[in-house]
Write a structure and sequence with these properties.
This is AbrB family transcriptional regulator. It comes from Plastoroseomonas hellenica. With 355 residues, the chain is mainly α. It is built from 16 helices and no strands.
């Protein structure tokens, strides 16, 4: 009898996951028909969040890693040798943007402290725009409670995903910098399968050593290396990229349950306000850096946007907006977060800036 009950629970969970993914796909398709920017991700996220608000919603555990693997390969393939040279030329600006973005976490920390009721250290890790998974991992390593960090970073990600794509679609005005444009490689299925296997192996390896966001980093670096050497065996089939967007959107949407949001109304509100403040601050910094460097303003804004690397770089791909440059900004910021976030907090505490 116990065995049958377990089977029913497993079947129920499977049906819930399949139903959630089906609804997420439908939401993405509707958004696609409406020609929304980042349609598959936003549509999937909104549809899944609507389901999760009132009913059980879940996605298979492998959905997000699989989506990140596909996106890592798709984005990495844009790095041809000439594009790498162009991105390398922008490296001083990219490094400055990464450091300034991380320091911006100190600027919005007081908002999360006063409005959200967080202590200074937790507010800092909740405020740094390093990406959801990266900041949760770094918070756990620093001994910070991950629950408020998860909520704050999730709320920021939702706001940024909903606001930045339409804003930048209007701002870009259909102009593109040809220095960062590449021809999409043809799809050769045996080569794509080998590429996916290699990306999965690197993702597993990165996960084993505790690297933050290994499922995108590993495949992305693999594709970058092969593309730069002109040895890329295949491009990534675009419907797979759309499916990856659905997986990422659904994995965000299932978190937005009634208990998750209403259980911490004060922090959710503080996270919303801090996201607006942080976005305005980083947009202003991005415009200044773009004007100084001569880089395209929309791409620099997206490169400094306080969303996660997967979400912001796939936005660049959806808008055909200097994908390698935007990815370079977010790769650098993510790498620096792993290295300098904890030291910055220690320095801030000594200087009395941590609240």
């Amino acid at each position: 009898m116990r065995r049958n009950t377990g089977a029913r629970v497993t079947l129920s969970s499977l049906l819930t996951s399949l139903g959630t993914l089906a609804l997420a796909t439908a939401g993405g398709y509707v958004a696609h028909l409406l020609r929304m920017p980042l349609a598959w991700m936003i549509g999937a996220m909104v549809a899944t969040a609507a389901l999760a608000w009132r009913h059980n919603a879940s996605v298979p555990a492998f959905s997000r890693p699989a989506g990140l693997l596909v996106l890592g390969l798709a984005l990495g393939q844009t790095f041809t040798a000439p594009v790498i040279a162009a991105v390398a030329g922008a490296l001083p600006v990219i490094l400055a943007a990464a450091v300034l973005s991380i320091l911006a976490g100190l600027a919005v920390g007081p908002i999360l402290q006063r409005l959200g009721g967080l202590d200074g250290r937790t507010a800092f890790f909740a405020g740094v725009p390093g990406g959801l998974m990266v900041m949760v991992v770094l918070a756990a390593r620093a001994g910070v409670s991950i629950a408020p960090v998860t909520l704050s970073q999730t709320m920021r990600l939702v706001v940024v995903v909903l606001v930045f794509p339409p804003l930048l679609a209007a701002l870009a005005g259909g102009t593109h910098d040809t220095s960062f444009q590449t021809v999409r490689p043809e799809v050769w299925w045996p080569g794509l399968l080998m590429l996916a296997a290699g990306g999965a192996a690197l993702g597993f390896a990165g996960q084993r050593v505790g690297f933050a966001n290994p499922w995108m980093f590993g495949p992305c670096l693999l594709a970058i290396g092969l593309s730069a050497a002109d040895r890329l065996p295949s491009g990534v089939w675009m419907p797979l990229v759309d499916a990856a967007q659905v997986a990422l959107g659904a994995s965000i949407g299932v978190k937005l349950t009634r208990d998750f949001i209403l259980g911490a109304r004060r922090l959710a509100f503080a996270s919303f306000i801090s996201t607006i403040a942080l976005s305005l601050l980083l947009i202003a910094v991005a415009v200044v850096l773009a004007l100084i460097s001569g880089l395209p303003i929309p791409a620099v804004i997206l490169g400094m946007a306080p969303g996660g690397m997967p979400e912001m770089t796939v936005t660049a791909k959806a808008l055909d907006m200097a994908v390698p440059l935007v990815l370079g900004f977010h790769l650098t910021r993510t790498l620096l977060c792993n290295v300098i976030v904890a030291p910055i907090w220690r320095i801030a505490e000594r200087l009395g800036l941590g609240g």
